[in-house]
Amino acid sequence: MAIDFDQIFAKAPHSGGSAFQWHQDQAYWPRMDADASAATCWLAVSDTTLENGCLRYLPGSHKEEELRPHFTMGSCRESATTLFTPIDEDREHPAHVPVSWGDLIVHHERCLHASAPNRSDGWRYVYVLSLHKAAWVAAERAAGITYSYNDPISWSSWNRWPMAGGAEEGGTQGGGQERR
Fold first, then answer.
1. What's the pTM?
2. N or C: which end of the chain has fewer CB within 10 A?
3. Tens digits of per-residue pLDDT, 11-58?
4. Are strands 95-97 and 55-57 parallel, antiparallel or unpaired?
């Protein structure tokens, strides 16, 4: 495995818009010939609780052979920055996973997960490290995918990545197909 990218998630106190909707990390990645196997390492830099938006998982979802359909968030394609997949929480029974500062969670690329907004008085911090096979990381870099927040990423650059088209407004991703 090789380091693909890392990032810090900081949820401000009482930030209603800080929720991450249900998704599978692999839905964000371009389709390439390289093996997309990955491990996302999620390190709690502060306690994560029900109140400040701990992770929620759909148990067993990592065993699903295919990605679920993912849709863009936002009123138009240009404002969409995240993807989501609808789940039936009453039928599928997601689990909340509160953890203490210093705890590490590792999840599979197809594991369905989400987090609620931070409704507490304090900040919630998490450090994320994404590991992929070295061939995948090399293929991403060759395609111009760097994950740097300094790079100008737009839908036009997204559409040039080696996948079946880009995200469609208000709906599916993948050239009019659901993003899988």
1. 0.79
2. N
3. 999 998 889 999 999 888 877 777 889 999 999 999 999 999 999 999
4. antiparallel
